[in-house]
Each structure stands twice: as C-alpha cells, then as structure tokens.
Automatic annotation (TrEMBL), chain A:
GO terms for molecular function: metal ion binding; tRNA-guanosine(34) queuine transglycosylase activity. HAMAP family: Q_tRNA_Tgt. It is an enzyme of class 2 (transferase). Belongs to the queuine tRNA-ribosyltransferase family. Keywords: Cytoplasm, Glycosyltransferase, Membrane, Metal-binding, Mitochondrion, Mitochondrion outer membrane, Transferase, tRNA processing, Zinc. Heterodimer of a catalytic subunit QTRT1 and an accessory subunit QTRT2. Residues 258-264, 282-286 are annotated as: RNA binding. The gene is QTRT1. It catalyses: guanosine(34) in tRNA + queuine = queuosine(34) in tRNA + guanine. Transmembrane segments: none annotated. This is Queuine tRNA-ribosyltransferase catalytic subunit 1. The active site is at D103, D277. InterPro entries: TGT, TGT-like_sf, tRNA_ribo_trans-like.
TrEMBL record, chain B:
Non-catalytic subunit of the queuine tRNA-ribosyltransferase (TGT) that catalyzes the base-exchange of a guanine (G) residue with queuine (Q) at position 34 (anticodon wobble position) in tRNAs with GU(N) anticodons (tRNA-Asp, -Asn, -His and -Tyr), resulting in the hypermodified nucleoside queuosine (7-(((4,5-cis-dihydroxy-2-cyclopenten-1-yl)amino)methyl)-7-deazaguanosine). This is Queuine tRNA-ribosyltransferase accessory subunit 2. It comes from the Eukaryota. Residues 12-406 form the tRNA-guanine(15) transglycosylase-like domain. It comes from Channa argus (Northern snakehead).
Amino acid sequence: MSLKKALKAASPLTLRIVAECQVTKARACDLILPHCSVSTPVFMPVGTQGTLKGITVDQLEGLGCQICLGNTYHLGMRPGSDLIEKASGLHGFMNWKRNLLTDSGGFQMVSLVELSEVTEDGVKFRSPYDGKEILLSPEKSISIQNSLGSDIMMQLDDVVSSTVTGPRVEEAMHRSIRWLDRCIAANKNPDKQNLFAIIQGGLNAELRKACLDEMTQRNVPGFAIGGLSGGEEKDDFWRMVTLSTDYLPREKPRYLMGVGYAVDLVVCVALGCDMFDCVFPTRTARFGSALVPWGSLQVKHKQYAKDFQPIDPDCQCPTCKRHSRAYLHALFKSDTAAMHHITIHNIAYQLSLMHSVRQSILEGRFPEFIQMFMKRMFPSRDQYPSWAVDALASVNVKLE
Amino acid sequence: MKLELSRVVKGSRLGVLKGLGRMGQHSLEVPGCLVYTHFGTVPHLTQDTLRTLKNLPSVTQVTLSDIAEHQEVLEEFRDGFRKFAGLPDTVLYCSLHDPAATSPTGYTTNKTVSVWGSGGRIELTVAKFMALQKTVQPDWYQSMADGETWQNNTSRKRVRKSVDRTLAHLDECLLVHQNSQELEGVEVFGMVEGGDILEERIRSARETAKRPVAGFCLDGLQTGSLQQDLRTQLTAAVTKELPENKPRLLQGVGRPDEVLACVEAGVDLFEGFFPFQVTERGCALCFSFDISPDSERAVLELNEERDAAGDLQQNGDLDEPTKMTYFEMNLKDKRYQGDFRPLVEGCGCYCCKNHQRAYLHHLLVTNELLAGVLLMIHNTSHYHSFFGALREALANDKLDLLKRRVLGRPGQTERKE
Ligand SMILES: [Zn+2]
Ligand SMILES: [Zn+2]
C-alpha cells in the first residue's frame, strides 16, 4: 500500500530538507530537479524571452545560477512553441544546461495585453502581433509549457490584482482550483516536468485557507503562493505569506512569486518560503542601479564619476573584481556593456545573499544573520520597515 | 617598436611588429588589425565574453572622442587609462576619432581640432591634446591632425591647408612629447593627409617621414569618402614615399575587399571597427577565407547563402558604411527563423559553438541585448581569422586564391548594375 502510494506520488522532483531553523520557519533544502540540484532558499533570475538581459548562459552558470525563468506568454508568441519544441525545448533553444521554470502565461496576459477577458474556458485575448483572437486555456498553457520542456511548470491561474476585493476574488480562487485540475490532467510529461499549484485567495485569510485546503489535497510536487506582490499593503502581504506556509506541506517546495527585494527575501525565508523570482534585479541594472548590502548604488550618478572603488569591495563578482564605479559610470555613456556589468553584479548579489542565508540556516545562526543583515541595510533601527519588524516578531525574531 | 618584414609580395608586406608596449613584451603580426573599443570596452562585451576569443590582437584602440570628456577623472586617477578601464595586459593605441562614427566638419581651426563625445563637442589645442595623452598613458598615439578633407569636392586650397596644419600640429606635439617625462617610451604616429589630391598626399607623406615618428596613419581615405580605385592609387603613392621599416595604418577602412586591395597597396594595419558595424545592423559575417585544398565545397555553400541573402551591395558606387555588404548574412531575415545551424559551419567561436541561427534570429526580432553580444563575438572572431588567413596566404603565395575566395567564385559575374 505505502509503496503503491509512493509510486503514484513519484514526480521528477525530490526535496531534501537539510536544515530547519530552530527559531523561525526558515529551512534549507536540496531541491533535486531533472537538470541539476538546486540549493534553497533560491532566487531565480528571470529570462523572459529565453535570454537573460545580455548575459550568456556560460556567464549565468559561472555565477552559480541553478535555475532561471522563462515566460510562456512571450515565448509562445515568439518564436512559438512548435519551433522551440523542434529545438529540443527551451533548454536546447537557449542552450541552458540547468533547470528552467516557466510561468503559465496568464499573468502576463492580464497585465500586458489589453482586451483580455477571463471566462471559465480560459483567458481570451487579441494577439498584439497579428490581431487574432487567442484563447489561453489551462490545457493550452500546459501544452505550450510541455513544448518548452521546463523542469517546473506553473498552473494557469485566474489572476486578480491583489488590491481587488469582493466576490471577484472568491470566484478567481475557485476557478484557479478548477483550472489546477485541468492542468494536472493536461500534463503530457508528468514524469519529466513538475507542475506547481498556485495558492490564490487575495488578501482574504479565509479564502486563502479554503484554497490551501483544496489545493493541498491535489497530488502536485510543489506549491506557489500567488496573487501577492502586486501593490498591496506589506502588512497584508506578509500575513498571507505566513498563513500559506502554515498550511503548506512541509515536504514540498514553496515558491513565493514575484518577490525579489533583499529585505522581502530575508523576511519571507524566515516565514518559510524556499523559492523566489523577480525581474527587479535585472531590470534595475539597465538603469545603472547596483544592489549592495546597504541598499542600492546609482552608478550613473555624478558622485561616482571619480570613485575608484568597486561597486561593493566585498563582492566577488567579475564586475567588482575588475572595474571601478568611476569606469562603469563613464562606460554608461559609451557602451551597453556597462549594463551587462551591472546585471552580472546584481545577479551575483541576489545569489550570494541567498547563499549566505542558506549557510546561516545550516549553521543554526539564521536569527543572528537577520540582525546583521538589517543593521547593514538600514542606517538606524527606526528606519526598519514596521511590516518587517512585525513579520519577524511573528517568527520569534525581535530586531535589536 | 620594430617592424620585421619577412616577405614583400607585389606590394603586400608580411611581417611582425615587435617590441610593443613599454616593456617591449608584445608583438603584432602584419597585415593586421587592432581591437576596436568604446572607451576600452569591445562593444557589447565584458572581459569574460571577450576572453572566449582566441588569438585577439595585442593592440587595443581607444579614442579621444570617448576619453576627452573624462580627462579630469583620469587626471585624478593618475595611473593611466589601461588601469582605469581594467584592461588586461594589452598595448594601448590612442587615436583621435572613432572610426565607426562620422564627425561633423567645419569646426577645425588653425590651432584646434574637435572631437565629439557623449556630451558634445570638445575642442582640443595641442596643449590639451598632449595633456590628454599624458593622462591616458598609451603605448602609442597618433598626433593631432586636421583630417577634414575626406569629403568629395574639397578644394585644393583646403587640402593644402590641412597638410600644413597637420605638419605644424605634429611638430608641436613632438616638441611637447620630447619634453615630457611621462611620455618616455611612448611612440607617436604621424598623420598623412592630402585628401584626394596626389601631390598633396605625396607632400604630406614625405614631410611626415622626415619627423621622428614610429609609424604612419593614412587619414581621409575611409570607406564612403572615395572609390577603391582612387584609394588604391593614392595609398600606393603614399606608401612608396614612406620608409620601409615603419608601419602604416589605414584609418576608416574595414571591408574585406577594401582591406585586400589596400594591403596590396602597402598597408600594414587596419582598425577593427568593421565587425562592430556588421553587428549593429543585425548581421553576421559569413564570407569564406578558407584557402585549404578541400575548401571548395564549403565555399560553394557559403556563396549560396550570400546569393540568397537579399539585396547585396557590390563595389561600385560610394558605399555607405552602414549598409549591408556582400560579406554578411542578415539574421533578421525570416528564412533563419527555423534554421538550427550555427552562424558559420565550422566556426570555433563561442556563439557558433553554442547557438543556432534560429536563436539569433529570435534575439534580434525581440530586441534582446544578447543578440549584440553573440554577434559581436562571432563577427570579431571571423574578422580576425580573416586577417590570419590573409597572412597565411601571403606566406604561402596564395593571395590570388584568397582573393577569389573572399571576393566570390572564379567566373562568377560581378553584380554591377
Ligand atoms: Zn559585484
Ligand atoms: Zn562564429
């Protein structure tokens, strides 16, 4: 009986919990996926169009990235899933040897495409390229993601802005559960591709709880916490996160979607999340904003014109090892490589932050890490965001 | 700096430029090409991606048009541009203008020349020019010059004035140079001007050759300014006047057909900006320079590629430097959408070893930054390999074969309208 159950549950994913924080809900795991093992907590850089902002796959691998994202909506439009399938999936098309996660395409559609309409069938929209009406159903989303061949696929969910309230939120939550079942049924490669459910329910604790109850009964290899990080109050945000991790099964990975600011990452690891993604670190790099342990550094600002230090003297990335703030400042006026330098540094920053977090969990000193991290990030105690103070207090870390 | 010529075949010179750099530890084979940069950075490339290229030339070119506006910063930095830019061990050559950009004319005076940076025009006197050289600390630099005579129909009087001014600038530069400790061991290249007027070209060459310069830059003969026949004629006349043992660098010429013609006219060095121009128009160099005995089939395939590549331009009218040439393929073209071959079969560059035409096409149509990175890697690699093949051809008496390869199949009718 138990063997039969284990076989049925077999998915191309294994989560090994390596250490759990004795104070907070944080954990360090090895997430074993088809292309390689991922050390969590993990930040996943976003490569929307099958490329990461001017960085080669060798550079990304060199930075230690074990998993990155591709966007189903964009790739499904151009170059299209047929072509990518012919190229042996997105891995082959972009020649990335490690893991890929693809989103469902639904979020992009609702946020990028005007005139999209959500019905029980799916999301209906007009192609911005040829004007044709297209229906993205749960089946279609999974079919595209099957062609892309990602290691982790996301279910199509009914996305409602986190600032919307009322019956629409409840409708979306129930629909997302129905769509999850359709996605599970549509997955042609359950032995090769993992399908994650997305917990919805807006900022309403009861709806979240109901969604968690339903979805955790499904046999999926992992869960995402969705519908957050969309402009809601941070007080609401962290409460929904911690509620979700309270009810998610311990033995499955938890992915908090769209979160990537350093403080949010550290707090949400403490709340029990394992995986994160965000376009922010790479997007902001293009404007010359470099992420540092004390916030950010605007390389294009005049004050750095004669600053001959690296962006972060303690950073081990290729940019900081070779170039000064002053050179990068000047290079921004001459060549796009300046952006690449900052992008590389920012990805290195995100990955190394998560590495330090993991290390501190492994060594049983995550609460101390949080204290040091906050001290470095903010000039003084009274500048700590109150939501972070509250959130951390809820997991027994009282900021000094 | 010492030029050792090993062969001279009908005007083409094969050799090695030795003793480069302040310690004299570098060398550069000629005919050869410099590494083109924007402010010390090969366009689109970080050092990591650049280092995937094997056999990069040992000389990096930087321009005052990029650097001039940052002089104050470099002065405060004190250790020279190479260290400021985080450049590895390379010979640094500093020129006035960016060879891939056209500077506006009409701003030169008796005492000044202008360069255009991101913040607009900067006027340079000899004093300022030399102050810049002292902060940049290159291994060689070209002297200040009035090079405004490249346009058609420049009057004889204007051309004469440019030759006179340029010689005067050179004398002044050399005077400051000789009295500057900071510039000890740094080499100066004299600028040969003269527009399209033969007597002025010869006068400029003869007079410049009398000065203590390490080499010569041929200015005002760039692509777009005159036809190749005239360029060949003027170049050959100039190089005849120049001492054999000093290198000649031709500015603003990079097309493979023009390079070949100018090498035969006695040119040793070129600036490496052509691959950048090809990259910027979303194209990949794909011309063959394979002169090994069994190369016939590969060449046929490449030519088919080129024939099908759409509107290609042949020699004839004055070429616009931004227009696609016969030597490249336009990867934005829909025909590459589902093409899973490398850009050039057998190319050993990072791009060709790891990616396919279809991916490059996708990156280009989606305006992704990686397109520029990968194309620049391939184009730079292809172009520098072409120079390698050129030297090999000269060494083995195969220049005619190389020319047939590069310029098209023997017997193929030129597509002149
Ligand atoms: Zn760094
Ligand atoms: Zn190549």
